[in-house]
Amino acid sequence: MKIDKSTALFNQAKKFIPGGVNSPVRAFKAVGGDPLFFKRARGAYMYDEDGNAFIDMINSWGPMILGHAHEDVEKAIVDAVKSSPSFGAPGQREVEIAEVIVDMVPSIDKVRMVNSGTEATMSAIRVARGFTGRDKIIKFEGCYHGHGDSFLISAGSGAVTMGTPDSPGVTKGTAQDTLTAPYNDLEAVVHLVDRNPGEIAAIIVEPVAGNMGCIPPKAGFLEGLRELCDREGIVLIFDEVMTGFRLSRGGAQELFDVRPDMTTLGKIIGGGLPVGAYGGKGEIMDFVSPQGPVYQAGTLSGNPVAMAAGLAILNHLNEHASEIYSKLSKTTAHLVEGYNETLDDLELPYVINHVGSMYSLFFTDQEVTDFQTAKSCDTELFGKYFRAMLNQGIYLAPSQFETLFVSAVLTEKEVELILAANKAALQEITG
Ligand code: HOZ
């Protein structure tokens, strides 16, 4: 595959941008080779600067659940920008999107719009601390909640991909207020809470982990966290930046029927534009300024163009929910079945985890249930697999420690192409 234009752009980018990219995992460091630079995307396909076409299995890390350039979203953006790209003052769309979110996400009474998932999680823990008057939080090893200082402790996603799950630059003072437990280990969480009586403000969790690859919660794990938080007066935060509006109309909390006190959102909520949100019980959200004392603000928060894109995608998902979510699950199940058939014929240890339209193929002989088992994977082999898939025209997440996201525009034709590419790639790397 010819990627001369991408390589030239990457070389130029490295002169002016750290590592040549604006988000580390995009640099392909974990999988080798130069990253591709993209020119346009439509439906299920992305096209790079050299004119190569790829079936997209990341979908902008989740937001493009309806495929690229969905007509409702495109039209909404164009219409909104004609009125103004930014008011820096309240507008009607902010009220509309808040109402739609409160209607769709079961546990949210009130919501504040921000500009990214990172902002949403940083703000949510500040509010939880303000509400409880406590300082410490518990997060899970391998979960990633954006790049806020408090979360770069045993962090997944790009942080572990780059070999820096505990980033330099985070002060000891901040780090000591973040306690960590293994994902899916309720007993470890109970132990941490017992050792820090009355000190834990919040437990933040990805209800389905997506940042160390896809890892589902074990039966009783989320329910156990809910009970523990109720008993100890701890704010339970579901980070649904990935799972929100993806696993069901109401996210993972609806799918697993567990209600957190607060929820953080991002990705799909912006339809591809930079949007995040945090919301929760009215009594907690009323602590947010100007209603309450916990300060949080943003010049571009509730931006009219971003709100228009978000509203368009949420309205579409809302209207067609049963059809879209059942299609997404069926397509993913079909893909996983096809992968299993191919992999079972090869002498290669593997595990596939999937929930709804999120899935990961891990090269390991262990069941992947937490960060330790995710790290048992053969990441070198994953790099070879990634490159072989790329050569077959399939664009995967460039790291073993990410989930893949299926979009609703994959047809039977693309599923067959992906399965054929997967077979050829696996035969190449094992042959
Ligand atoms: N937050 C994304 C999923 N882990 C990663 C996006 C990126 O690093 O570019």
In words, what does this structure look like?
This protein is of the alpha/beta class and 431 residues long. The chain folds into two domains: 176 residues, Aspartate Aminotransferase, domain 1; 249 residues, Aspartate Aminotransferase, domain 2 (3-Layer(aba) Sandwich). It has 15 helices and 14 strands. It has a seven-stranded mixed β-sheet with strand order 4-10-9-8-7-5-6, sandwiched between helices. Strands 1-2-3-13 form a four-stranded mixed β-sheet. Helix 12 packs parallel to helix 15. The radius of gyration is 21 Å and the shape is globular. The mean pLDDT is 97. Bound molecules: (4S)-4,5-diaminopentanoic acid (HOZ). The site of (4S)-4,5-diaminopentanoic acid (HOZ) has 9 residues, from helix 5.
